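Write out structure tokens for J domain-containing protein.
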Amino acid sequence: MKRKVDQKDVRAETSVGIECNENNESNEAIEVTDPYLISIVNAIEQLTESWSAKLKNGGIKLQLAVQIGSSLSVSQQEWLMEFLQDFHVRDLEMSKVLHAFATEIPEWATRQILQLFRKAERVKVVLIARNDVMDQLEQRMRQMEYDFWQGKLPTDENELEHVLSTWQRELAAWEEEASHERNTYNRTYGDSSRSSVNAPSAGKDLTFHTLIGVPEEADAKQVRKQSRKLLRVLHPDHGGSAYLFTWVKEAYDAYQASRICRESPTAR
């Protein structure tokens, strides 16, 4: 497949499947032969004027522009532009938004779905040490993800509203449990809004095993595995709490130091 592309609209180099005429003047056409580049050019040419302007001005990245041009019709692109002006969407959520618009999920439902996933992530951070509850929550989130991406959500808006309301009630129950966990934590260790530099040490009545959600008889390997899982979720780069991350990290370091001290020959 070959396609003539105006050089002033698409910047490319001859080393990636583009044949240039000898003069290579700015007003001459270049011939694109690479299928990957052809798909990119096709997608960009499908952008509306508003999205093309954002791409040229650096308002969006090329990858997102290609996704928009290749998956959304002109009217859908216009609706997306209006949607993003009224509702803040994080970069990691754009793929969900594009999928929702491409599959014609109503805008009200798209907003609610994003809010449900956000709430699920917040609840997950608080309940990470509760293995029993976490298994239920993660299973429900996987089902939510599957239904969303595989087009299993109802097309009838009344039925769709019922499904989303059911998700909302389930998450509300988990959120209430998470709130109870948070309040218990604050009563025991203080307000988590304080600086992570002054993270408290674990209370005398709470062992490190209990803190991270493993049995008291768990060995060092199990403790290390669960600690790493917990720290990954709590890491600020992954949307977690710097305060809780530091607290758990310091508790793990104290546990490790105590274990090494007990197992050293001089301690026997």
